[in-house]
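Replying to the earlier thread about multi-chain prediction with a worked example.

Input:
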Amino acid sequence: MRICDLLAETLHSLTSNKVRSGLTILGIVVGIASVIAMLSLGAGSQASIESSIQSAGSNLLTVMPSAAGQQGAGFRMAAGNVQSLTREDAEALAGIDLITGAAASAQGNAQIVNKDVNANAQLLGVTPAYAEINNVTVHTGAFISERDDRSYAQVVVLGSSLAEDLFGTDGDPVGQRVRSGNMLLTVIGVLEDKGVSGFTNVDSAALVPLSTAQRYVTGSEYVSSITLAVADEEQMDAAENAVETMLLARHAIADPDYADFRIQNMADMLETVSTVTGTFTTLLAAIAGISLLVGGIGIMNMMLTTVTERTREIGLRKAIGADDDVISLQFLAESVMLTLVGGAVGVLAGWGIGTAAGAVLGVDALVSWNAIALAATVSATIGVVFGFYPARRAARMSPIEALRYQ
Amino acid sequence: MSSDAIIEAAELHKTYDGAGVVTHALRGVSMRIDSGEFAAIMGPSGSGKSTLMHILGCLDTPTSGTYRLDGRDISELDAHELALMRRETVGFVFQAFNLLPRATVMRNVALPMLYTRVPADEREDRAAAAMRSVGLEESLWTHRSNELSGGQMQRVAIARALVNDPSLVLADEPTGNLDTATGDSVMELFARLNGEGRTIVLITHEPDIAQKARRVVRIQDGEIVEDAATADAEIRAYGSGGEA
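Result:
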C-alpha cells in the first residue's frame, strides 16, 4: 500500500465520523496544550529569574557577615545581627588582582518624607563604586561622589519609582530636599529604571553616602555587604578563594570553618535557581502529562470501538487481498493521525494558554522548539502505543468470521 | 491435467474442533472447474457449501486434501500468501454487498487496487471500465454507496470484484438480499460476464438461481451428491422436496 493511499484512506475513515474523531482529538489537545502551557510558563519564569540575576551581574561576588562557626551549617544567624565587615575590608579586597572593583554598602530601612508625602524605602549607604559594580546609571543629576562620602554629606540619590512616589511623574526632584529621621537630605540624582535585579530592587531604594548611613542610620563602623566585581567570569572560583584567604587573614581566623563572613557567588546562585525552576517546570509538566495519558486512553477507546464497528469492512478488505500487516498499518495510521492533529492543535492552544496565563502572572511564556518537538514525539508515541492493541486486534480477525459479523 | 483448469480440488476435508466436538464440514470433495465455466455450488445451509467457498476463495485452507487455484497449490500457504492469492486471483461478491457506506461508488470499486501495484493514474480508468461492464451509469459514480438501491449496490460490488481482473469470480448468495426481478437482472449480468469469458462460481441455496448457471454442483453433508450441466441436473428445492 502506498503512503498517499494510506493517508487518503485514513483521512476518509476519520472524517466519516467527525464528531467522534473531534472529541478524541480534543482529549489529546487538552493534554498537549497543558504540557506546552506549563513548559512555556516554566521556561518563561526561569528566563526572567535568570535575567534578573544576570542584570545584577553574574560576575559578582557578594561578601556578607555570617555568625562565626556557622559556615556550611543548616542554621545561620541573620546577616543583620552579625557585624564583621568594614569599609577597610572592601578597600583591601579591591586590591586583589582578579577583582576589578569593590563596593561596601550598609543597609537599613527608612521613612522618607517630602512635605506631606512619605514613603518607606530601603536606605542603602553606598560608595561611588556602587554605580559601576551594580550596573546602575543616573537618569538625572549625579551619583554620590568621593567628596560626598568623605564629608558625610546629607545627599540622596533616589531610585526611579521612589522618586515618582515622592515627587510625582512630572516633578523634578533634583535639588529638592527630603527628610528622613533626623537627616535633611538634598536630592542630587534620580536613577534609571532597572527593574528587579538579584534580590535588591534599586528602583525603590534611596542611596546615601556610606559614611552618612553609618553615622546617622546604622550607627556603626560595620557594613552589611561588600559586592565585588570579578574581571573574568571564568575565574569566579579562583577569585572567591582569594577573597576568602584575604578576609580570613584580615580577621585573624585560622580555621575557615569559623569564618565570620560568607561569600555568595552569583554564578552559583544562577545555577541553583535554574535547577530549582527546572525541577519545578518538570513537575508541572508531569502533572499536565497525566491528562495526556487520559487522552491516550481516549484514543484507545475510540479505536477499539471503531475496530468492532468496522469488523465487516475489515473482513472485506482481507477478502480483497489486504494482509494482516496492511490492516494493522491502516488502523495504526488512524490513531497516529488523530494524535498528531491533536498534538499540532495542542501546541497552538498551549502556546495561547501559556501566553494568556503569562500575561496574568507577569511572565513571558516561552514556547521552545524543544517543547514542540517533545509534543510531536509524545503525541506520535501515544498514537502508536494506544493504537497498537486495537490495530493488532483488527489485523488478527479471521476474514471469515469478520465477514459474517452482524 | 489441462492448463485450463482454474479450480482443481482433490479429496478436500475440513474439520472443526470446537469444545471437544469434531464437526466434519467437508468429507472428501473433489472437483474441477475450468476457465470460462459458470458453475453453481448449491446446497442447503449446513451442507458445507460455505466452507467449500471459503477454501475455494483462499479465505481458509483445507484440513487435508489438495487445492490448486489457477495452477498454484494453496493448501499449505500461510495467511500472507493467501492474501496475495486473493488479491491477484479471486473477485468476491457477497450477499450483503459489503460496500463502504460513506465512500463513493468510484472509491468502492477502486478499493481492491489499493492493495495492488496498479499505478494511481490507471486506477480510475480501470474502475470506470469495470463499472461500464456491469452497466453502472456514469451519473452514479460519484454517489455515496449508501444512496443506491440494492441492485445498484450489487452491481458496484461486482464491478469491485472485476477491477483486479481475477481468474475467478466467487459469488456468495449474490441475490440473497435482492427481490426476484433485481436478482434476475444480476444473474443476467453474471451470464453476460461469463459470455465474455469470465469464470464464475456461484454459491447458493436457491434452485431458481442455480438453474441460471451452466453447471450445478450439489453438495450435501460435506459431499458432492450431483455434478452436472444445468440442462441435465435434477434440481430440487430443499426442504419441501418438491420440483423447482
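Residues 89 and 166 of chain B are 5 Å apart (CA to CA).

Feel free to reuse this layout for your own posts.
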